[in-house]
Amino acid sequence: VQLQASGGGLVQAGGSLRLSCAASGRTFSNYAMGWFRQVPGKEREIVAAINWSGGITYYANSVKGRFTISRDNAKNTVYLQMNSLKPEDTAVYYCAQRPGDYIRWGAREYDYWGQGTLVTVSS
């Protein structure tokens, strides 16, 4: 399985970015997906997760109402639309895939990870 994340960059506070994660290697629509983020010295934390169909989503409280996770099973891609970005959203963002079709929010529940994409929000 390969997960290729893209879309990170530098943005001013209040701006928007859209992350993408293209998956290959196993039937994408069979698996739940998640977006996590990590800053140096801290544990990787979940940002959002989505079940196999896209019908069920989960958001961390810190991003609820600002971020939207979605997926396109025909394109084997999961997205994270990030609006109203804040400096505290600065982190390396990782997409991940878990061996099941339902949502879990622990990093240990995911078995494949993308390489990470850096999001920097300036104040």
Which short descriptors sum up this protein?
single chain, mainly beta
Verbal overview:
By secondary structure, the protein is an all-beta fold. The protein contains no helices and eleven strands. It has strands at residues 2-6, 9-12, 17-24, 33-38, 45-50, 57-59, 67-72, 77-82, 91-97, 112-113, 117-122. The strands form two sheets. Strands 2, 4, 5, 6, 9, 10 and 11 form a seven-stranded mixed beta sheet that branches. The chain has a four-stranded antiparallel beta sheet with strand order 1-3-8-7, with no helix packed on it. Strand 7 (67-72) and strand 8 form a beta hairpin. The model has no long low-confidence stretch (mean pLDDT 96).
What is the alpha-carbon Rg in Å? 13 Å
Query: What share of the residues lie within helices?
Result: under 10%
The major β-sheet equals: 7 strands, mixed
Counted beta strands: 11
Distance between the first and last residues' Cα: 37 Å
Helix-strand category: mainly beta
Shape: globular
The H/E string reads: EEEEEEEEEEE
Runs in which pLDDT lies below 50 for 5 or more consecutive residues are none
> Please, what is the average pLDDT?
96
Task: Indicate the proportion of strand residues.
Answer: over 45%
Tell me the number of helical segments per DSSP (H or I, 4 or more residues long). 0
Helix/strand layout:
Blueprint: E1 2-6, E2 9-12, E3 17-24, E4 33-38, E5 45-50, E6 57-59, E7 67-72, E8 77-82, E9 91-97, E10 112-113, E11 117-122
Parallel strand pairs: 2-11
Antiparallel strand pairs: 1-3, 3-8, 4-5, 4-9, 5-6, 7-8, 9-10, 9-11
